[in-house]
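Hey team,

Filing this mostly as a record. A colleague (T.K.) asked me to run one chain through the structure pipeline before their review meeting, and I want the input and output archived in the tracker in case anyone asks later how it was produced. No errors, nothing strange. Just documentation.

Input sequence:
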Amino acid sequence: MNLLIVDDEPLAVRSVVNAIDWSRLHIDSVLEANSASQAKELFAREPIDIMLCDIEMPKESGLKLLAWVREQYPATAPLLLTCHADFQFAQEAIKLGSVDYLLKPIPPDELEAAIRKAINLVHTQQEMKRQRETWVKHHPLFIEQFWMDVLKREIPGSPEAIAQTARERNIHLPEGQITLIRVQVHRWSKSLSMRDEKIMEYALANALEETCAKLGASFGIVTAERGCLLAMIEVKAEWRSVRAELEAYIADCRRFFYCDLSVYVGEPTQIHEIPEMNDRLATLMLDNIASENQVLFLGASHRKGSTIDWPDMKIWQFMLRDGARSALLEEVEDFFRRLRQASGLSVMMLHQFYQDMLQVVYTVLNEKGIRAHQLFQDKVSIELADHAVRSVYDMWQWTSHLIGKALDYQEEIKAHESVVEKVKQFIVDHLGEELNRESIASRFFLHPDYLNRLFKRETGLSMTEYLLIERMRMAAELLRKTDMPVTDIALQVSYSNVSHFAKLFKKQFGVNPNEYRQAARESRKCIASKSKSER
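Output structure:
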């Protein structure tokens, strides 16, 4: 903190400087000026927190300097000194905002008390400034938190309680009714990270703020949940204009922010009824499984069209079993195109279709020995399944994916030789791992019994037999070509029990591992000796 002493008498300045222990008051710097002009130069160069100024100075009095300081540097706390107890001077000093009015000569304790008073004023002003800056910076967050508290019913639902809370938080509320608008993103047309999605939602909120400003007075926009924005506005435009502006908003969002969305508009209501209105809009959103990129008004009729003509799932099951890819996918696309135009559609109906479709695909896959729960455990399949009942479009995407992936794998296992060759290679590549029929079959999304039948028909061996032969072959090679201990070789082919390994090895080769290694060494010596004698 800096303090400036202004007095045309240098001795008076020095006496003040020497009278106080400035470090005890946490004054970092004491500046000196002998005229108003010098003081103004120092103000231009240094931040001045407190000014201690004499009133009677030649050319420009302390009162005139104080008036200039109050205009140019209002955060500075001034103290005025004088030799005369002049009421008019005191009155003017107080009028100009002087912290205190002191008579020379000043006892050190009185001077220190006056400076402490000025320091407290500076601290108070700084704290008020910080609070004002914090309020300006975070005001949008305060508004958002207020509306979230209203929506979550964390503020008592009476008009008086909400109004009282708004006053306490300095939130301005509309005098009339308010309209709740809900924006729901269905999907992003580009793959986004969580950070990019947050940025896009921020852009959607800014665009919604601009749109709401055209419709009336906006009182807040909040992110209620992932992909969901809520706007509270006092609508002053005609409802026809409301629809047009919101349709333009949807078009801009699709064009610039790469998303499909719907906008739901509530009925004008009192502020304390907003939570109920939000619940009604949420229900409208959940029931809207056929429309996207549209503006839907609460209470209006949105479902006009033909009745639902559900497909014969037995026919679809036959087509899937027969591998009629093109015909089946055309049937699926045609069904969902008609479904989007049908009336009376509900989320429950989509759930029923979802279960029926699963039954069709799982039945066909089970007949072919394919384990469906393993085939569809990848990230894309799980995400599509999670979103399937959100809308007709999402159900179509999931159904097409389900059928396509099932047909892809059916076509692959038709050429069972290629599957068997892949299994053989997989076994060879993983001899050191814990393998059995189940773990091998799960790698290829097939039932163990079904895959074992395929494998035995092609190789004459079961998978377990083939695995044992390959492990013993690998062990024999390591015994012949390396000096690795038998224990380590056993571990290399996934046997932690050396005795068990030795027993299996002897059954395969007629000798135990050490005897096999010794015989191999003697054989190499004989071959080497014979080769040497021939030379």
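Quick notes for T.K.: The first helix runs from residue 10 to 19. The mean pLDDT is 86.
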